[in-house]
Amino acid sequence: MTSGQTLNFNDSVAVYFQEIKANTAHYKDLWNLDIYGPVLLVNPGSRKLYANLLGSNRDKVTLCEPTLITSDNVSGNGWVLELNKGYIVEKNSSDRNYLLKRK
Description:
Largest sheet: 3 strands, antiparallel
Shape: globular
Mean pLDDT: 78
Number of helices: 1
Strand content: 25-35%
Distance between the termini: 43 Å
Number of domains: 2
Strand order of the largest sheet: 3-4-5
Oligomer: single chain
Number of strands: 7
Radius of gyration: 16 Å
């Protein structure tokens, strides 16, 4: 990246995740906290989701278990996922994970 070049949203997300990872490694003993993950960012224009900790197939995001699921959003300790119309979150009884699905 050269001086004066602007970052697009995807590049900005990558830089942000790199900075969080580097600062966590450098200051973890001071903070006694791993701030690297999981972190989710959403592009407000496209509503595309970006996550720093994905499954090996890049199809899963790991969060703590939700504490509240409504027709409009899903929330847990420190996070909220606003659901677009036509989407639901359901608990998978076989593996106890939650799935985001179209109605």
